[in-house]
Amino acid sequence: MPALSVVVPCLNEEGTLVELHGRLHEVAAGLGLGQGGLEVVLVDDGSTDATLDLARGLADTDPSTVVLRLSRNFGKEAAMLAGLRAATGDAVALLDGDLQHPPELLASMYTLLTTTDAEQVVARRDRAEDPFVRSVLSRLYYRLVNSLIETVRIQDGVGDFRVMSRAFLDALLALPERNRFSKGLFSWVGFPTATVSYRNVSRGEGRSAWTLRSLLNYGIDGALAFNTRPLRLLMHLGGWAVLAAVAYLVWLLVGYLLHGVTQPGYITTIAVITGLSGVQLLAVGVMGEYVGRIYQEVKARPSYLVHEVIRHEDGGSDDGTGGVG
Ligand code: UDP
Ligand code: MG
């Protein structure tokens, strides 16, 4: 069993993959992990560039590298899950393939994990080099998500870059949900956690697969995945709307008793109708989100499908039958 497995989800990372692989081995050598002490799990999440070929080449020459080729692009969450399930190490690290997570930091993270009672060591990025707008936006984002979530706390600057003990990982993998919001799950699992800081590096090669829209959807996922608080917020909203309607009605009645019938309130009628329909649509939308999630969980489809597992031993590949998550 390797001492350390490093799981890397890769979508179109041809520019950084080989360098990353080399640096991981340097880190392992620095830690004195020795032969067979390191395992690198590369998950090819349906890349359309040379990533798969490069990964295959690495696995061909390096027995410590395993490549999981997913059958298509399933998204980072699914790719991470696939890699974490395949990892066999006593400690398991998770890091991005674009070198935004400096591999050298793994040395101190791994040391912390093995020498303290921490079951998880997370890397926290400082936002010194982020563009101003971006760091403000992400701060707002975390405040919003945290205000909607009760049970877990999500820290600004903390991503998926972390090293976990086997006990922690087993607990994490025992969570059966399919709609996985890792940031929340990592925190939900608990266990003693240590944090190290690092300097954020701008993306060197390729470009981020995140669009504004996918970030927004990710935020909604975060808010919905952990509780039913949005539903309760809607109940409050509905309550206030009813109160306002009653108050308005009383006001109209008093006016009627004092002055008799006055002008017909065309504008108020329209305003009330559009306002309340908006609230109703919103409520139906939020409920629909929960129903949709129930639907997905009930269908119980795997989060990803493995097409091929590529290893050194057989010098090639085998069919990923049974490699279903
Ligand atoms: N990634 C993936 N599947 C996806 C999107 C991203 O495996 O559908 C990988 C990507 O190759 C990288 C990591 O997830 O290793 C983080 O992606 P990215 O750099 O685009 O995100 P950001 O750094 O902006 O959070
Ligand atoms: Mg990145």
> How would a textbook summarize the main sheet?
9 strands, mixed
Classify the beta-strand content into a percent band: 15-25%
Question: For the record, what CATH class of the largest domain applies?
Answer: Alpha Beta
Tally of domains: 2
- What hetero molecules are in the model? uridine-5'-diphosphate, magnesium ion
What is the C-alpha radius of gyration, as a whole number of Å?
Answer: 25 Å
So what's the overall shape?
elongated
How much is the average pLDDT?
84
Number of strands: 9
Structural class designation: alpha/beta
- Count of helices? 10
Which stretches are low in confidence, meaning pLDDT under 50 for 5 or more residues running? none
Give me the CATH fold name of the largest domain: Spore Coat Polysaccharide Biosynthesis Protein SpsA, Chain A
For the record, what is the CATH homologous superfamily label of the largest domain? Spore Coat Polysaccharide Biosynthesis Protein SpsA, Chain A
Distance between the termini: 22 Å
